[in-house]
From TrEMBL:
Name recorded for this polypeptide: GntR family transcriptional regulator
A Pfam short name: GntR
Gene3D superfamilies named in the record: Winged helix-like DNA-binding domain superfamily/Winged helix DNA-binding domain
PROSITE patterns listed in its UniProt record: HTH_GNTR
Keyword Transcription: yes
Single GO molecular function: DNA binding
Species the sequence originates in: Luteolibacter pohnpeiensis
Cross-referenced SMART domains: HTH_GNTR (SM00345)
Top-level taxon of origin: Bacteria
Keyword DNA-binding attributed: yes
Keyword set, alphabetical order: DNA-binding, Transcription, Transcription regulation
Residue span, HTH gntR-type domain: 12-80
Length: 125
């Protein structure tokens, strides 16, 4: 069973969605350092994705520092140092594109969108 929850959406690579969901699960505490992460095979079976996609997910998480391989145990979650600004922005880009597309369809200006984001941010603190 997948150690975190999320729903796949159309229009975005599956591997990117899973990587982002794992990152959010770690940030929210749904995943903790030391938790086991599914193998490529288990990930592929659970999500009904190809093993190639499962391997890509695990490799991306390893490259980002979220997973380490422990001999005899498998893939284990680790809390990495904060990714670079470039990496964090790259992770946000798909969601930002969808958000901007929706804003355009509602005829909102960038200033109006910025006001919304600032209001939402101030409500989160």
């Amino acid at each position: 069973m997948l150690p975190f929850s999320f729903q796949l959406r159309d229009g975005e690579p599956v591997s990117d969605q899973i990587v982002r969901a794992a990152h959010h699960a770690l940030a929210s505490g749904e995943l903790r350092e030391g938790d086991l992460f599914p193998s490529v095979r288990a990930l592929a079976q659970e999500l009904k994705i190809s093993p190639t996609t499962g391997h890509k997910v695990i490799q991306q998480l390893k490259d980002l520092g979220f997973l380490i391989s422990r001999p005899g145990i498998g893939m284990v979650i680790q809390a990495p140092q904060l990714p670079s600004l470039e990496q964090r922005l790259a992770m946000m880009e798909p969601a930002a594109r969808r958000f901007l597309d929706e804003a355009r369809s509602l005829h909102l200006t960038i200033d109006e969108v910025e006001q919304l984001l600032r209001r939402l941010q101030s409500n989160q603190i």
